[in-house]
Amino acid sequence: MPRSEGSPLLLAGLLAAAGVTHFAAPRTYDAMVPSGLPGSARAWTYASGVAEVALAAGVALPRTRRRAALVAAAFFVGVFPANVKMALDWRHRPAPLKAAALGRLPLQVPLVLWARSVGASAEGRS
């Protein structure tokens, strides 16, 4: 990803929007939670939504941007199993839904690289 002035704010906006959707449409996310995790799927849905909103705030603020962006990169890696589960669960759905689920898998790579780039270009204050 290019290192532009707006890039951190775009990443923050993406994280914030994704985090809010965990509360607006939690059932979608509940279904993605791998069954091997302890506790309820809804608790994981809400926790990941809170994490994304917190990361959005951290990336938006210059003082915490570096650390928050690097944690966001790790977060994108950490949620990859949920995207794999979604792709497996949706393999028999209509083609557009199946394509959307499969499309989430390679999308994680540029998200990780983008977050790392934002972290690397941030001033080392965090």
TrEMBL record:
<feature type="transmembrane region" description="Helical">
    <location>
        <begin position="43"/>
        <end position="61"/>
    </location>
</feature>
<dbReference type="Pfam" id="PF07291">
    <property type="entry name" value="MauE"/>
</dbReference>
<dbReference type="InterPro" id="IPR009908">
    <property type="entry name" value="Methylamine_util_MauE"/>
</dbReference>
<feature type="transmembrane region" description="Helical">
    <location>
        <begin position="68"/>
        <end position="88"/>
    </location>
</feature>
<keyword id="KW-1133">Transmembrane helix</keyword>
<protein>
    <submittedName>
        <fullName>MauE/DoxX family redox-associated membrane protein</fullName>
    </submittedName>
</protein>
<feature type="domain" description="Methylamine utilisation protein MauE">
    <location>
        <begin position="8"/>
        <end position="81"/>
    </location>
</feature>
<keyword id="KW-0812">Transmembrane</keyword>
<keyword id="KW-0472">Membrane</keyword>
